[in-house]
Amino acid sequence: MGELAAGSVARAGLRGAGALKAAVTEALVATLRPIRARYAELVADPAELDRRLRDGASVAAAMAAPTLASARAAVGLAEQRA
């Protein structure tokens, strides 16, 4: 939460649980607004989302390959073929 939202929550706490709940909800909704907007953009184009997921999986596999090879070697498993 931002500094302004944290201050609002602190002030609401002085007015009781109902006001605190409203202030926390308002701060949470404001914090999540850009995340929800970005999510909506991504799911609006399934082909682009699939492309990004494939690209991410490819990058993750490349990053994990050395660790997986070391782990396979450590437990005596044969090297995996591509």
Please summarize what this structure is.
With 82 residues, the protein is mainly α. It contains 3 helices and no strands.
What does this protein look like?
The structure is a single chain. The chain is mostly helical. The protein has 2 domains: about 1-45; about 45-80, no CATH class. Helix content is about 85%, strand content about 0%. It contains 3 helices and no strands. It is elongated and about 65 Å long. It starts with a helix and ends in a 7-residue tail after the last helix.
Layout of helices and strands:
Layout: H1 3-13, H2 17-44, H3 46-75
Helix pairs in contact: 1-2
**Low-confidence runs (pLDDT<50, min 5 residues)?**
none
Shape annotation: elongated
Please trace the helix and strand order, writing H or E for each element. Answer: HHH
Mean model confidence by pLDDT? 86
Q: Main β-sheet: number of strands, strand sense, barrel status?
A: none
What are the defining features of this structure?
3 helices, 2 domains
